[in-house]
Design goal:
alpha+beta; single chain; 26% helix; two-stranded antiparallel sheet; four-stranded antiparallel beta sheet; Alpha-Beta Plaits; 6 strands
């Protein structure tokens, strides 16, 4: 059962997407820069991870292009999304207990 948190914390839902006529190379590079990417070479002999922007802040990915972030992180996220010319909608939501746990927010 989903329980709404009694904790008063600002959590924002961010819905974003690239414009319809965005070239394929940009469409491929954008999620790599946002979420990060596992990379390997020489048939998997060398493996490493390219760090994405969202790895620097707590977030909860709900669906492709839909994430939850803390209010204190929204400005840096919007700056990043603006660099990629994304179309963005932001709303404040009432977080569930599980959202607070994922976002590493102290519930007490």
């Amino acid at each position: 059962m989903l329980r709404v948190s009694e904790h008063v914390m600002k959590v924002m839902i961010v819905i974003f997407y690239l414009p319809p006529n965005t070239p394929p190379p940009i469409r491929n590079k954008f999620p790599q820069k946002l979420y990060g990417q596992a990379v390997s070479s020489w048939g998997g002999k060398y493996r490493y991870r390219k760090v994405g922007f969202l790895e620097s802040i707590p977030y909860h990915k709900l669906y492709r292009g839909v994430i939850l972030v803390r209010d204190e992180d929204i400005d840096s996220l919007l700056d990043f999304l603006k660099e990629w010319d994304t179309i963005v909608e932001v709303r404040e939501i009432i977080p569930l207990e599980e959202d607070l746990e994922v976002l590493s927010i102290d519930k007490d």
